[in-house]
């Protein structure tokens, strides 16, 4: 049974204390003491690098085959739309079935799908509909995979190491994002996109092998829910009843729909705005990934999770994205891409950590399915919206809308939280490192 739902008014902006003092650098990697997690993380480094390579290659392949930026957005949508259909059901599976087995199946499906697509590209037989079909198949696999993958981390490392593991996951994901697009850009220019997709099929197979080699006896036992009616409704009520779950997911919805479609935005910028082609597209992805890597390291150094910080990061992310589209200055655009990566990663790791640490383990799979449903479903809708805006009004307006909506949402949530907790903004020029702070009204 899940614990009683906390009142909505309770602890809206209180920090979730994870550490009592700033962590030492060696403590940042404490989750690696778990054998299964070490194996998992090493495999994910390969899989994420290959995944980023394939992501860049597939988006560019669609652009080459059709010349239509809107179809790039449709490709992104097909990768993420299945989560809208299968997301809640995937959460129930995660809370009922062995998560490692679920991951073995879904990862194997992805390996086969990308292998077939790579073969078609390398033999010159590929057509646009085949790329779209592959996006739909892998998107369905990802929809089922997501909740189990998120919740499985706590089985490998335990709750006390969970936040560090989430930061390490983000670091490895974006390290792959730093390496993968750069390699993919070179391969696309030199020998075509097929080899990038083929590499991803191989690295995905490495991830399958790592899951198969794990020591099942070292996994943290998790109570599995029995079949019953209303389990999805239970998760929705649970999430709505906890402010530390509700507000991050609400902000995430705006960031996902409007601000998490960088492949569409960067493809449009490389093709229309700056005319830098595939090499520029790979560079732009790498700069954003570099910023995200920095953000992941900074995230692992934080002592506590505060809802006000998550709101701030969402607003900062939106503001930097607007600047990237409005400046029109190429060096400024490149710098802004790094800023986008840093702020997005700080927001994403903070929101996911707060959601997982606020959730009872017995319902974590279903809650994370809601979380991932917002992420991927939002990206599915956003891919079409932002792709359409880029195609009709140009990349600059697409960047402005992509950043403006999350920034506005963060401002509204900040006002609501300020009114509920009687908080106010303090500007203190005597403390440059704490120039702007949100403080209780009585302390002001």
TrEMBL record:
Ranges for domain Major facilitator superfamily (MFS) profile come to: 36-421
Q: What's the protein's topology in the membrane?
A: Multi-pass membrane protein
What is the source species?
Answer: Protaetiibacter larvae
Q: Please indicate which superkingdom the organism of origin belongs to.
A: Bacteria
GO molecular function ontology, one term from the record: transmembrane transporter activity
GO CC terms, sorted: plasma membrane
Q: Which InterPro entries match?
A: MFS_dom, MFS_trans_sf, TM_effector
Q: What is this protein called?
A: MFS transporter
What SUPFAM superfamilies would the database entry show?
Answer: MFS general substrate transporter
Looking up Gene3D superfamilies in the UniProt record yields: MFS general substrate transporter like domains
| Transmembrane intervals | 39-63, 69-89, 101-122, 128-145, 166-191, 197-214, 235-258, 278-298, 310-326, 332-349, 370-390, 396-418
Q: In which compartments does the protein localize?
A: Cell membrane
Cytoplasm listed as a keyword: no
Q: Keywords for this entry?
A: Cell membrane, Membrane, Transmembrane, Transmembrane helix, Transport
